[in-house]
User: What shape does this take?
Amino acid sequence: MTDTPHRPAITIAELDAIARDGVPIAAEFGIAVEALDPGSARLRLPYKTDFVRPGGTVAGPVLFALADYGLYCAVLSLIGRVELAVTTSMTINFLRRPAPRAVIAEARLLKLGKRLAYGEVTLYTEGDDQPVAHVTGTYSIPPHPPVAVEVPHHRFSDDG
Assistant: This one.
């Protein structure tokens, strides 16, 4: 590997444009990509009373949407603007009740193959280091031209 800095294959501004044009629920929810690195993304979902379900907690579908978009961002950070990359499976484990604050998503890929990407997302209430949910998911990647991105090879493989 060279000493050049690793850069994602897509920018936060490009992700914001995709959200506005193609994933409007992410934009409507106010999800913001705060950080993007090759194979990982950090997102913030602002707290809104519309997201609260009976019992005073953030609704599960809202947390699921944040995690799904977070994993999508992590995938695109390595393959670039391949908009037809889609979720094939996702599992969410709710660990504890989120406080009525913004929710932070830390997404990272564990494996990137030619056709599939597998990763995890950990969700936290802003200001708390204990996770409120853990998510794993797989994305299907359609055929696309390769993007020149330098990634540490020990984290990902080409098969799959």
